[in-house]
Write a structure and sequence with these properties.
Elements lengths: L24 H7 L5 H23 L3 H6 L3 H11 L1 E10 L14 E13 L4 E14 L2 E14 L4 E3 L4 E6 L3 E12 L2 E12 L5 E4 L7
Antiparallel strand pairs: 1-2, 2-3, 3-4, 5-7, 6-7, 7-8, 8-9
Length: 216
């Protein structure tokens, strides 16, 4: 993932949108801080050093002790490419509305798949997680919610998935909700993330978010 890409803040995005909203490219470019070529080169060199150290730490018998033994510059470089920036990006969404427009009497099944990503401060991907769900509708009401895919994968050394995803579903009849709770671990520190899909009984509208609350 390239340094400096646009992100969506962690949390709910507006309800009943077919796709996540993004900042227009030109607006994002204009809003970005100006960096000199020397600064960009310095960032890249720092990131390269950090990734080299991250690979060494991942292979070490005692990564925590090895990290503690680094000098301050090397610890800073390592953190630059391995510590989460605490924002998440919706990198893929493929809701497949079964209806071209809102249909109060829609009947049938349709699916939604979304993938999320956590990045470092530098902007490289640390890991991704995803959720695929299907709802079935009859008589304008959801009668079935199914999760057909969920999981995570790491992209940067020092990270690992901690345990299996915890999955839950909720049917409020006017929409079906699917939720994935997942823990990612860097050495001995855990970080918690979620993916949630909501699909409307009209066969058309859906919402992807990283919110962990399935009840409201």
């Amino acid at each position: 993932m390239k340094h400096g890409k646009r992100v969506l803040a962690k949390g709910m995005i507006p309800l009943l949108l077919g796709v996540a909203s993004v900042v227009p490219l030109q607006q994002a470019v204009n809003a970005a801080p100006v960096h000199s070529a020397a600064a960009d080169s310095g960032d890249a060199a720092k990131a390269a050093r950090g990734l080299e150290l991250a690979r060494q730490l991942a292979a070490a018998k005692d990564p925590a002790a090895t990290y503690a033994g680094l000098n301050s510059a090397d610890r800073d470089a390592t953190d630059y490419v391995t510590k989460p920036a605490k924002t998440v990006t919706l990198v893929q969404t493929s809701g497949k509305p079964a209806a071209a427009a809102v249909q109060p009497d829609f009947a049938g099944c349709w699916d939604d798949y979304a993938k999320w990503e956590e990045d470092s401060v530098y902007g490289n991907a640390l890991f991704t997680w995803w959720l695929g769900s299907e709802v079935c509708v009859s008589g304008g009401s959801v009668y079935s919610v199914r999760i057909y895919d969920a999981g995570a994968e790491t992209d940067t050394p020092t990270w690992a998935q901690n345990g299996n995803p915890v999955l839950s579903k909720k049917n409020v009849y006017w929409e079906g909700r699917a939720l994935e709770n997942i823990d990612m671990r860097q050495f001995f520190q855990d970080y918690h993330y979620c993916a949630q899909n909501r699909q409307n009984a009209d066969g058309n509208h859906y919402l992807n978010s990283s919110n962990c609350n399935i009840d409201s």
